[in-house]
Amino acid sequence: MEPSLRLVLVLCFLVLPSVISADTNTDDTSGLLAMAHSWDKQRASWSGNDPCGENWTGIVCTGNRVTSIKLGNLELSGTLSGDIQFVQELQHLDLSYNVGLHGSLPSSIGALSNLQNLILVGCSFSGEIPKELGQLTKLRYLSLNNNKFQGPIPPSLGGILDLYWLDLGNNLLTGELPVSNGTGPGLNNLTDAKHFHLGANNLSGSIPIQIFKSEMKLIHLLLDNNEFSGSIPPTLGLLDKLEVLRLDSNHQLTGPIPASISNLTHLEELHLENNNFTGPLPDLTGMQSLVYVDMSNNSFNNSVNESNAPAWFTTLPSLTSLFLENLHIPGHLPQSLFNLSGIQTLRLRGNNFSGALEIGRYFSPELQLIGLQGNQITGYTMDAPNYDKKLILVGNPLCDQGSNEAYCTSTGQSTNNISIILFPPLIIPHFSWDINSTSASIPQLRGVRMFTFEELKKITCNFSEANDIGKGGYGKVYRGTMPSGQLVAVKRSQQGSLQGSLEFRTEIELLSRVRHKNVVSLVGFCLDQGEQMLVYEYVANGTLKESLTGMSGVRLDWRRRLRVLLGAAKGIAYLHELADPPIVHRDIKSSNVLPLLHKGRLDDRLNAKVSDFGLSKPLPEHSRGDQQVTTQVKGTMGYLDPEYYCYMTQQLTEKSDVYSFSVLMLEVVTARKPLERGRYIVREVKAALDRSKDLYGLHELLDPALVATSPSGIAGLELFVDLALRCVEEAGTDRPSMGEAVGEIERVLKAATGTGAADSASNSTSSYNSRTPRHPYAGDSLSDYSAGGMPSTRVEAK
Fold this sequence. Notes:
The chain has 13 helices and 42 strands. The radius of gyration is 29 Å and the shape is flat. Helix 6 (558-577) runs antiparallel to helix 12 (738-753) and helix 11 (717-727) runs antiparallel to helix 12. The longest helix has 20 residues, at 558-577. Among the domains are: 1-128, Ribonuclease Inhibitor (Leucine-rich repeat, LRR (right-handed beta-alpha superhelix)); 448-537, Phosphorylase Kinase, domain 1, CATH 3.30.200; 545-769, Transferase(Phosphotransferase), domain 1 (Orthogonal Bundle), CATH 1.10.510. A hairpin with a 5-residue loop joins strand 31 (475-481) and strand 32.
């Protein structure tokens, strides 16, 4: 797991609401102290006898009762005390990623009748999963993946009828899948569950025919890397909401694939590889949502008399990856297979495809790899001389005559592309190029210039120290002066940079197609002499972070801070609501907001621009209206949306930016880092808030410089804080859109000026609000799964 992911999980306990009491319930205190005594090592700061009143690390209270324990990634070691049963009002228990936690899970945990989330991912718990967990009737999330649990899956889990997420992946579980026998519960009773993540265990036996029912809402069924045997039951076709199906690497699964699989018209990922399936290759016609298909290494029976490859090959409009290796499929590959608009990867080795390979002129621009090793290809024609990706034909008659063509080697024709083949969910880039190629192969992007290394060396005076205006994990930023006199900022990546090729390309592709006065403009880029450099318009004044800390020399009073925030909000709203496709920035923070001088002076018309798009993600055009992307957690500590990382959904939406923007708002009025020495600004504000007092009782938290530079007062602060707290609601659906935030900040600015918004704030928000609001959490798809059940974006590595 990436260190950044380990780090963000420990923040989950900081971002959820709490009501502090000075007198914690004695049973709760006793239960927590017993837990602490069972640990050999713990980094949590627990001192005294008042968990709620003394802000114990990871403890959230409602009144005087402990309702949440979140201690992820704190290097805890030892066992889990059975005395946890005394914390009777507990709703959330998260001890994830403490590999030192071991031993059995106490059966007394079944007494926690209010528990809604039990998350113990990545520990070392062992023994059997207690059957008493079935008593937790309010449980919604049960995540025990990546432990050492043994024995069978308790049938009693089928009694948790409200369960939404069941993840037992990557353990040592054995036995059959439990189903109801009419007198007791089983997994088939969980009709409201959307996720069965049971992969990477030692489960065995046949997959029961009665486990699947039409009323089930499953969208993820993950049974991969087990020891199941027998055939797939035809009732699988009843799961018509299924989006991801993994049955791969169960080597004793056999028999034909049931025809009912074609009923799974919402399926996006189909994994049937590395089994012993027989019968005909399944017909996937009509499964229009399929993005990824792998049926490699099975024993399908294929007619040697077929003259053409299966017709369904060219009927899947969303397909990006097709893996059909070692299946002895005969026939001629149709040219239209290479024309599918999104196709990226074709791995077809070890078949009997024959005749001449005809790729044609209008192949998909996304096509990165055609792997046809060990087939019967006798000829090769391509009307597209610019195709420079991987084509591998070694082991075909075409290459048997001692050919020295690049495609007749084991690696095939290859270039050093900076493109990466990703498993779904997939954001398909518009451009791809060879990082070491000549300018002829690099796409000409409208309004964006390609610079040579020597040009940028010259305009920055050989990257002189005098022109060094900033640095980060990617490298340094230099001021440059173009021959025309235009000032630019040159971001130069260094070796070992945190900004990789993918981030570099992302920023070019996104900024080349967005134009807005509150979004920094891309002037050009450089891929010369092994360098990666981006050239932006130059924005004087440094960053908002530098202004708040006094490093820039710019003093911002209340109205100026509001205008900077308003400009940033408009830029983000444009990305969400007017860019096509919409874009989630994913790294909104004070160092990525640039206060903008207007006509050479810092006055009431101060504006701002949003910068740094290396982590940004376009949202898929086909999902417009319920925008979400499943992806690895990335961003900056303290600004991250808990719905994005705490609950392991990793569902990225526009509302993730809204959360980050709200943290930025609180940073602007306090001048405090979002996260410092274990203190989280959101929690600090919530704890100090008193709406019955002037300025909501936040006097101690306000930036003294803000008070000093605002002699006329901080009018509208209450409206401002109310908006910020709406933007940090735990559920993304409860947060306003950025378009709505623009309107609210304009209201605050009007209150602050007494006369309405000034020039930079005078534009109507109707351009944002006129569009039909999207509902970013309308779906629940987690379109990827890695070993152990954590959704992620994975690099294809077969």
